[in-house]
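Usage

Read records sequentially. Each one opens with the input sequence:
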Amino acid sequence: MEDSHEPPPGNLPEEQGWQRAARGAIQAIGGAIPFAGGLFSAAAGYWSEREQQRINEFLNAWIQMLKDELREKQETIAEIVTRVDMQDERIAERVRSDEFQSLVKKAFRNWAGAESAKKRAYIRNILSNAASADLTSDDVINLFLDWLQNYSEFHFAVVADIYQYPGATRRQIWGRTGKGLPREDSAEADLFKLLFRDLSTGGVIRQHRETDYAGNFLKPKAKPVPKGQADPRMKSAFDNSEQYELTAIGRQFVHYAMTELTPKIEYHAGSEEGVSKEEKAHNA
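and closes with the structure output:
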């Protein structure tokens, strides 16, 4: 008598064990999200009856995405903890405060915007510095988190360049990207203009301005152009005359997001124990 590989009626194939886990996850979400409960429950029932492979593959990828996101958040929290001195009562009180917890919730609620390792490092740095320093208000730090959501890595590369080279022109900044100079009517030129427009209207950068002794900005003096010598071309996306600098809030962003605190505890992902620098030196 030949062995039958057909599953008993009404049961799912045993080798598709992860499908049962996916079904459980979708049913759990149906109960956890009231307004979507009916939709998810109906979908779970339909999937149980039809066993469509494409739906299975989608759910598997979706669950893996949730696992990866949770792992990234756990690693980020662990890295923050290793960088703040919890023995300092002021810092410990700050970390426990509702204001700081609100910042943490916002950072992780907008996690989908942290699509790269560099942006996740910015989130870690902002929260670590927000816990350890009080150079600016929580309203400003909330704005920094919004910037991480709204701006791309290219935006932040421009910010970092202007911070390192105050007074840089667009052409100088583009030249340090290592790319050749494109045409003015190219997509690259449009993108570069868009970056500067975003950062200027967002209050991150501005054109260089002279100030008086009290910090008041002075109006630029108009340069007369001899009659008949005006350039008929529009200003280049890679203009080499106007200089740019960070605003005060832009410089604060660099301090909070791009300055990394030194870990006070050695931590490795996957390890359940951490060793402080003092303990390691004592053991040595």
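Summary fields computed downstream for this record:
- The radius of gyration is 27 Å.
- The longest helix spans residues 53-83.
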